[in-house]
Amino acid sequence: MKEPQQVKVRSSLDVLTDIPLGSVERVTFYERDEITTDLICCEVVASGQIWTFHEEMPGWDALMAHLAGLASFRQDWFAAVSQTAFQPCEIVAFAR
């Protein structure tokens, strides 16, 4: 039987150096229904890895500033993803 992989939880700030803008292939934002609120999440595909973040993580603002440096990054992603509360919504803010 194969051993399960260990999952490491790190803050957004900790991984910024692991995600150089040149390695980012795709950035997707979506809302996750948390019963009474929606949690805005961000999935970054870079260097063959998938990184998942959410707005309550330490370093979220720094991550958003970092990703905004991508050419053709959708600056209107927040308005687009937060239009309908408690409804599935996924926005691709950047893709190569």
Description:
Residues 4-9 have low confidence and may be disordered. The protein has helices spanning 12-15, 60-67, 77-81, and strands spanning 24-33, 38-46, 49-54, 90-95. It has one domain (12-95). A four-stranded antiparallel β-sheet has the order 3-2-1-4. A hairpin with a 4-residue loop joins strand 1 and strand 2. The chain is α+β, with helices and mostly antiparallel strands and 96 residues long. The termini are far apart. The protein has three helices and four strands.
String of helices and strands: HEEEHHE
Q: Share of helix among residues?
A: 10-25%
**Low confidence ranges:** 4-9
Strand element count: 4
The main β sheet shows up as: 4 strands, antiparallel
Strand content: 25-35%
Counting structural domains, the number is: 1
Alpha-beta classification: alpha+beta
Strand order of the largest sheet: 3-2-1-4
Question: What's the alpha carbon Rg, rounded to whole Å?
Answer: 14 Å
Number of DSSP helical runs: 3
Provide the fold topology.
Blueprint (H helix, E strand, L loop, with lengths): L11 H4 L8 E10 L4 E9 L2 E6 L5 H8 L9 H5 L8 E6 L1
Antiparallel strand pairs: 1-2, 1-4, 2-3
Outline of this structure?
By secondary structure, the chain is α+β, with helices and mostly antiparallel strands.
What labels describe this entry?
96 residues; alpha+beta; 4-stranded antiparallel sheet; 4 strands
